[in-house]
Amino acid sequence: MYFRSLSGRFLLLTTAFVLLAEVLVLVPSLARFRVDYLESRLERAQIASLSLLANDMIDETLEAELLRNAEVFNVVLLRDQVRQLVLSSPIPTPIEATYDLRSIGPVQLMRDAIVDLVTPGDGVIRVIGDPVREAGLLIEVTMDTGPLKTAMLDYGLRILVLSAVVSILTAILLFLAVRHFMLRPIRGVVEAMTSYAAAPEDARRIIQPSAKVLELNEAETALQSLQTQLTGALRQKERLAQLGGAVAKVSHDLRNILTSAQLFADRLESSADPSVARMAPKLIASISRAVNLCETTLAFGRAEEPPPALDRVALSRVVGDVVDGERLAAGEHDLSFSEDVPAGLVVRADGEQLYRVLSNLVRNARQAIMATGEPGEISIHGEEDENAWCVTVSDTGPGLPPRAREHLFTPFQGGATKGGAGLGLTIAAELVRGHGGRLDLERTGPEGTVFRVVLPKTVLSVDAAAE
């Protein structure tokens, strides 16, 4: 289990790479040791040859002793363009290979060293080199490979032992350094995430960046930003839940008040005043919608609107009710309303929810125009094709501000007017999605704003409705 951890795997990788580095260092070192060994034998052979040259008359016993001390079989010197066998003795086996140390590259040296080590048994090789201090043009010796192999193996083992000790110390130091500078901060981040997950609403558990390593500090900063946003979202969700409970209580009392108002409004229908008799049905209809909305709120136990009760609804009647209500709200302001809806246009929708959608759109347009103090016009256009019913609400207002465009359908963030909560468009969009349709902002700017409601005639998939 330990080697499945980051520290365990790092230790394995460190050990493997250090061993690889040892191999890469060992082979050139052996090649260099072999060259030094061969050159030392050339030097010894040259010294022995000089002894013979100084005294031509030496017996065979002294000659054999000179060759034995030089650890060679024969010595050949090239002096004054003359090749001369200076010292000689019987060669036990034929010469296996010839190595010229005067012109050989590092790759060839390493390959020759490996060949000497892996070749089984002992043999005889010829070695050619330059004499020391230019004492001639060339020196050539024949020698046994047995002592060379023994010396190379001994040197290689000493290098391996020394490298192993250095590797172990290096791996331990690297492991401790990485564990201190990287693994501990990472473990701290994991512990901070675990602590925050236990109580994400507690702001005290949000991580505070403290890592000195740049990348880890950036990770802690990003995690802090994410945790801060999540804590804020949870708090907003809690506030919304509390607000929902308060709205339910207010709706309960408001329903009772509106029910009483509805009873009084019913008596207005029998008034002899023609104006009162004409306005009474609209007043009663408005109060009925308010009562129905309160009852829906009280029965509303989830975060989304209840599914629409689809029916065949005359669009012109719904638009007329919306325009009549908003015209009264406009009062004396120079604001005109235009209705372009065919009298026979019937849509399949929930009448009350469609009224709320159009009422929110027209109310927003009216409030935007009245806030400017300038005259304006609101137009509602209805049409249909073989696929959908479309209702377009346009106005000549100042257009949506940048913040409202950025958070168009986000509750409590997309308010277009000062003091607005930004719930109107959110509610309208949710109600339209409940019909399988969509609410689009076609354009907005100084020349006005245009919203388009599309209600499909056929059933759409969830993904298509959400687009």
Automatic annotation (TrEMBL):
Any single Gene Ontology cellular-component annotation: membrane
**Pfam families in the record:** HATPase_c, HisKA
Quote the catalytic activity from the record.
Answer: ATP + protein L-histidine = ADP + protein N-phospho-L-histidine
Q: Which positions are tagged coiled coil?
A: 216-243
Asked if Ubl conjugation is a keyword of the record, the answer is: no
Q: Which residues cross the membrane?
A: 155-178
For this protein, the record's InterPro entries field holds: HATPase_C_sf (IPR036890), HATPase_dom (IPR003594), His_kinase_dom (IPR005467), HisK_dim/P_dom (IPR003661), HisK_dim/P_sf (IPR036097), Sig_transdc_His_kin-like_C (IPR004358), TCS_sensor_his_kinase (IPR050428)
Molecular function as annotated in GO: phosphorelay sensor kinase activity
Tell me the enzyme class.
transferase
- Residue span(s) of domain Histidine kinase: 249-459
Name of this protein:
histidine kinase
- Source taxon at top rank: Bacteria
Keywords for the protein's UniProt record, in alphabetical order: Coiled coil, Kinase, Membrane, Phosphoprotein, Transferase, Transmembrane, Transmembrane helix
Q: What is its EC number?
A: 2.7.13.3
Location of the protein in the cell: Membrane
CDD domains linked: HATPase (cd00075), HisKA (cd00082)
